[in-house]
Amino acid sequence: MKAEIITVGTELLLGQTLDTNSQLISQYLNEWGVDVTFRQTVGDNKQRLQAAFKLALSRADMVVLSGGLGPTEDDLTKEIVSQVLGISLLRDSSAIEKIRLHFEQGHRKIAENNWQQADYLEGGYPLENKEGLAVGSYWEQKGKIVVLLPGPPKECQSILEGALRSQMLERFKGQKVLYSRYIHLYGIGESEVASRLRDLIHQQSDPTIALYAKPTEVCIRLSTKASSQEEADEIFKSPAQIIQKALSQFIYAEGKSTSLAKKAMKLLQEKDLSLAVAESLTGGLMMGQLTAIPGASIVLKGGVVSYASEVKRDLLGVSKSIIDAYGVVSEQCAREMANHVRKLCRADIGIALTGVAGPSQQEGKAVGTVYIAIALAENTYVLENNFSGNRERIRQHAIHKALFELLHLLQ
Fold first, then answer.
1. What would the pLDDT profile of 328-340 be if each residue is shown by its tens digit?
2. What's the pTM value of the predicted model, to 2 decimals?
3. What distance in Å separates the CA atoms of residue 130 and residue 132, rounded to the nearest whole number?
4. 292-326 confidence digits (pLDDT tens)
5. Which of 111, 238, 336, 397 has its CA at a distance of 20 to 30 angstroms from the CA of residue 378?
6. DSSP 22-77
7. Domain boundaries, given as residue ranges, for the chain
8. What is the rounded distance in angstroms from the CA atom of residue 209 to the CA atom of residue 217?
9. CATH code for residues 177-254
């Protein structure tokens, strides 16, 4: 089955809003075994939206539209789609009640145009929106499927994960769908990964193999169409073993939605270990990444942003003699920062990051020089690193390198 996605909204064309819905919809359609062949973005204009929808219907089995389901005059999607299909719009009673309660609880009068958010396509089904008031719509007739989704990303995702997912899984029950296996690597570039897997990539047929380079890591995706997860796992088995053998020292995790921070927090929790962080050049970014993970409080004791030398000395306890003799960008300073933050927060492990993010050198140290220290009860490990890139890239590299080395120490 071939699908086309149409995102609706003048704000998308003006660059005022980032179109994340297309990416999200594509991911779900691929998961359900539907091939996305085209994408369109169209503004809030009747003629252009009508032309875009007609074009999509002419070349796709399934058309998914996102946006334009709200209560304002420029929310045109339901009206245009129903006109092109030659059907009426029906009103969902559950959505009507939800709208009524929403305004009653807010002690506000309901404007008449708000009721149109409860409309769905005749001959189809309403798709419950758990994050908003505008229902989605699923319609299937004469070999064509049309899906209407709201524009706000949280609302779009809510329907994709909920009502539409249930509908699609039932629709394609027993058919082969797309399964993927994701392998995440750190400390190696995309070109080197491609070189090490040259034969595997050149000989690929099933599963397909794709490399995705991110700012500080590489992801390998294996994909196949299968009738079950068990069948897919068997297809993945041989190439995954080849990848493991060629790149084992760089692999840190598997799974679609993971990161070095998530993996580190999970491993710390499994081992019942606590963590404290002392940051200089990263200015709290590492703590930000760690605390963004649900359940971080189970293992994360606390952190200190010691940007200034006097804070390193007075709060963390780095000795003045160390700073005077070696400077704050040094192995010795990083070691003391990690040891002292571990003791200060009464944690099992202390991590410290100090270095030069740029734009100019510091204490005679080149931009990109970063010292990472990891303090355990029995020993403290310090690594000198030389990262390249702009200020933000260097800081992200420092965080990810620290987490990657922590994983190696714990595993």
1. 999 999 999 999 9
2. 0.77
3. 6
4. 999 999 999 999 999 999 999 999 999 999 999 99
5. 397
6. HHHHHHHHHHTTPEEEEEEEE-S-HHHHHHHHHHHHHH-SEEEEES--SSSTT--H
7. 2-171, 177-254, 260-410
8. 17
9. 3.30.70.2860
